[in-house]
Design goal:
alpha+beta, 2 domains, 5 strands, 15% strand
Length: 198
C-alpha cells in the first residue's frame, strides 16, 4: 500500500514525520492517475503538465510506477504515472468511474489550480475540525496506551480547571474522552485507510 524508495530517504535532516508518504492509487482515491496523451488530442497545443513539472515535485519511483507530490503542506496533490521513467510527451488524466471518481475529480481541480498558478486549496476530505479531532484521538490513544487514566487524558486535552468544574462520573468531557480513545484505537488499527478512500 505504501510505496518505498524515496530520493529523500538518505537525508539526515528528515524525521519519519517529515518523510513524504506516497500511497498506491488503489488506496488513496484522490491520487490523480496520469497517462501519456493520445496523438489525436491536438498535437499542436502545448500541454499544461509535462515531465519538467513532475520533476519539480517530490518523486518516488515504486515498482508500479512514478509517484509525485506537487505543492506544500496540506495544499498538495498526489499524482501517479504508471511506468518506470518520466515521459517526454504530454500527459492526460485518467479517471476510472468507481467510488473514487469524485475524490480524483476534486484532486484534478487542485492540480489545474497548481498548473495555472492559482492558489491550490487543501484536500477537502480533511477539514480543520477533523484534523483537530484526529490529533486529539491520537493524543488520547497515546495516553491510554501508556497507562494514563481517562480523567488525566481529559485534563491534558481540555485543561484541569474545565475537567474539575463538574462531577467527573457524569461529565460530558468524560464521555468525549472515552469516545476519543475508542475512535483513536479504531484509527490506529487501520481505520485511517478509510480517509484515503473518500
Amino acid at each position: 500500500m505504501l510505496v518505498g524508495g524515496s530520493r529523500f530517504a538518505t537525508s539526515p535532516d528528515l524525521t519519519a514525520l517529515d518523510e513524504p508518504i506516497h500511497w498506491e492509487p488503489t488506496v488513496d482515491k484522490s491520487k490523480v492517475i496520469l497517462k501519456t496523451t493520445e496523438t489525436w488530442l491536438r498535437p499542436d497545443e502545448p500541454g499544461l503538465l509535462n515531465f519538467q513539472t513532475l520533476r519539480s515535485g517530490i518523486t518516488r519511483q515504486g515498482p508500479d510506477g512514478l509517484h509525485v507530490i506537487l505543492g506544500q503542506g496540506p495544499k498538495t496533490v498526489h499524482l501517479f504515472l504508471q511506468g518506470s521513467h518520466l515521459p517526454q510527451s504530454r500527459l492526460s488524466v485518467v479517471t476510472p468511474l468507481d467510488h473514487g471518481a469524485r475524490a480524483r475529480h476534486r484532486a484534478t481541480g487542485r492540480l489545474l489550480d497548481f498548473l495555472e498558478g492559482r492558489e491550490m486549496g487543501a484536500d477537502s476530505r480533511l477539514t480543520p475540525q477533523k484534523r483537530l479531532r484526529f490529533k486529539s484521538m491520537l493524543r488520547a490513544v497515546d495516553g491510554r496506551s501508556n497507562g494514563t487514566s481517562y480523567r488525566e487524558i481529559a485534563e491534558s486535552l481540555f485543561g484541569a480547571r474545565r475537567v474539575a468544574s463538574e462531577p467527573w462520573k457524569t461529565s460530558p468531557l468524560r464521555d468525549t474522552t472515552i469516545r476519543l480513545v475508542r475512535d483513536g484505537l479504531t484509527m490506529v488499527a487501520g481505520g485511517y485507510l478509510d480517509l484515503l478512500r473518500r
